[in-house]
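Hello,

Our lab assistant flagged a job as stuck in the queue for most of the afternoon. It eventually completed. Since we weren't sure the result was trustworthy after the delay, we are filing this so someone can double-check. Below is the sequence as submitted and the structure that was eventually returned. Let us know if re-running is recommended.
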Amino acid sequence: MEMTTRDKIIIGIDPGTNVMGYGILGIHGKKPELIALGVVKLNKFDSHYLRLLRIHERVLGLVEQFLPDEMAIEAPFFGKNVQSMLKLGRAQGVAMAAALSRDIPITEYEPRKIKMAITGNGAASKEQVREMLRRILDIAPEKLDIELDATDALAAALCHHYESSRPVSLAGPKSWKDFIAKNPDRVK
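-- returned structure --
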C-alpha cells in the first residue's frame, strides 16, 4: 500500500444512537480525497449507556488509526422529540470527548450548512449530498453503496475543509460615513 503525505486529515462524524457515520478525508494542498468511510451500528446494544460506550471506543479507535488533525461533527438539529434530542446530544458529546482526549480540535456544523456547502442547497436530500460527494471526490458509485449516515459524516468533513480553507475577510467599513470616520487621513 502506497503511503501518501497529506497536509491535513479531517474526521467527520454523524452522531446517532442507532447508527453513527464516519468519514475520513485527506487533504493534499487544497485537494480533498476519501481515505475511509463507514458506520457503527449500535442497535444491537439494548442499553443506551452501552451504545455511548461503543461510540466512545469506536471514535477513539478511528482517531488512533487515522490520526486526524481536526474533527467536524454534525450538530443535532432541533426536533420535536425532546428525548431523542437528549440521546443524540449525548452521542455527540461522547464522540467529541473521544477526540478531545487526543487534543483534536472540533467544529460543529448544522445539517443545513453542510448540505449548502456540498450541494448549494441547504434543503438537499441525503441522496443528493451523496451524489455530489461522489462527483466532487471522484468516488466510484459502488464505494458509496453504504448507509447515508456515512456520507453525511463525510459531508461534514468536506464542509469543514471548505470552511477552514476560505480566506478570512477582515470586516470593512459598513458605509462611506463609517469609512471616513475610521480613515480621516485618507479623505481630502
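-- support follow-up --
The delay was a queue issue, not a problem with the job. The result is valid. The radius of gyration is 19 Å. Strands lie at 8-14, 19-28, 31-41, 70-74, 106-109.
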